[in-house]
Specification:
This protein is α/β, with parallel strands linked by helices and about 425 residues long. Helix content is about 45%, strand content about 15%. Strand 7, helix 8 and strand 8 form a beta-alpha-beta unit. The chain is elongated.
Length: about 425
């Protein structure tokens, strides 16, 4: 098929590259000329394992190209995915300006039947507005048929290529058989379960899924707080819960909470959607409150360990909101570092991928070349992202380098007894020491 992807962020770029890998002819378009220039030089604007290989292969095979000419991309494609950003406004509502602008450009450049697919995470009823916007902006002398569909993404940063090629399910919100048949044909090579529904249900599926996963994270973090009070071990509690097939073990890892571009934004948006439609989603408000509290809990653990934080050297390991990505959007590490700096701490940081982006935001911190430079002379070492390379450290070397052998583990990476045996004062989240 001839496909265009409007927007080359995490979702658009991965989707475009993977659809090209399935044999389609894909144009990835973006108004950001600098980003398109990078991509045309085969330089990835994001870190995502495996993405560069997929992009290079499909550019070489002439199945994938990048352009800043969105009008051309619309005219040359039958299926158009809208994958632009939908950032949160101040009140939590999604800003859909980008979606509307793309819908207008599509309308003005229609030269035959088009299937316009929402790929961005959008509030329920956005599909109706996209259709309305296209009808209003179609040239008066043109009577061109089109369809709007919803095809929400479920890509995890750090595992996005695998999630696209081996999805748990594909959700298609459609209003016509033509749209349904086109999308089923497009995704047929993936041999995955396909849920076909109306557009509004598909839009809610995305927000409901992310909100439920955020709820699991906040639930286990609340349990971790209780475990600390009574002397239980949250890891064992999670194991005992997770073996129940109705619950499952995924997303039951206690720590400093969720971050990233999806969960915080989608939770706020879903609370807002519910409010606008007359439902007060108190459950999700509590999920959000618990998540914020976890960052404060970690800072308190650091204060309790050091007594006075002012002028103490604190090494921070991990800046991205999760491992295997350089994404620092809404990363808990940023808030925690800001709070420690406000208390007068001297911060050194290391992250395998996120430091170039963090360098544009974090001021007054020292960026280190490796873990051991961050640990040298530190009064405390704080684990904020569970990168694999942090799980196999040279503990004797670490112990010698630190001014005080204190580790505050916000991701429960280590075994508490092993850390104590290695001579560290080890502080974690809800584990039994």
């Amino acid at each position: 098929m001839n496909i265009s992807i409007i927007g080359t962020g995490y979702v658009g770029l991965v989707t475009g590259a993977c659809l090209a890998d399935l044999g389609n002819k894909v144009i990835c378009a973006d108004s950001d000329k600098q980003k398109i220039g990078q991509l045309n030089k085969l330089k990835m604007p994001i870190y995502e394992p495996g993405l560069e290989d997929v992009v290079r292969r499909n550019v070489k095979e002439k199945r994938l190209k990048f352009t800043a000419n969105i009008k051309e991309a619309v005219r040359d494609s039958k299926v158009i995915f809208i994958a632009v950003g939908t950032p949160s406004r101040e009140g939590g509502e999604a800003d859909l300006t980008g979606v509307e602008n793309v819908a207008k450009v599509i309308a003005e450049n229609m030269n035959g039947y088009k299937l316009i697919v929402e790929k961005s995470t959008v509030p329920v009823e956005t599909g109706s507005w996209v259709g309305h916007t296209i009808r209003v902006n179609l040239p008066k002398n043109k009577k061109i048929k089109f369809d709007v569909a919803s095809n929400p993404e479920f890509l995890r940063e750090g595992q996005a290529i695998r999630d696209f090629t081996h999805p748990d399910r594909i959700v298609l919100g459609v209003e016509s058989k033509v749209a349904q048949d086109l999308l089923i044909e497009l995704y047929k090579p993936l041999n995955a379960p396909i849920v076909v529904t109306d557009i509004k249900s598909a839009e809610i599926i995305k927000h409901a899924s992310n909100s439920f996963l955020a709820t699991k994270i906040s639930f286990i973090n609340a349990i971790a707080c209780l475990c600390e009070q009574v002397g239980a071990d949250v890891a064992k509690v999670a194991e005992g819960m997770g073996l129940d097939k109705r619950i499952g073990r995924a997303f039951l890892d206690a720590g400093i909470g969720y971050g990233g571009s999806c969960f915080p934004k989608d939770l706020d948006a879903f609370i807002n959607i519910a409010r606008k439609n007359g439902y007060n989603f108190d459950l999700l408000k509590a999920v959000r409150d618990i998540n914020e509290a976890q960052k404060k809990n970690l800072v308190k653990k650091i204060e309790d360990a050091l007594w006075i934080v002012k002028d103490k050297f604190i090494g921070v390991l991990g800046l991205s909101f999760k491992p295997d990505t350089d994404d620092i959007r809404n990363a808990p590490a940023l808030d925690i570092i800001a709070e420690l700096e406000s208390k007068g701490a001297k911060i050194k940081v290391f992250d395998p991928q996120a430091m170039p982006k963090a360098n544009q935001i974090l001021k007054g911190v020292k960026f280190c070349q490796n873990v051991y430079e961050a640990a040298k002379g530190a009064d405390c070492l704080v684990m904020l992202t569970e990168w694999n390379e942090f799980k196999e450290l040279d503990l004797p070397r670490l112990h010698k380098l630190m001014h005080q052998p204190i580790i505050v583990d916000g991701r429960n990476i280590y075994d508490p007894r092993a850390m104590q045996k290695a001579g560290f004062k080890y502080i974690c989240m809800g584990r039994k020491l």
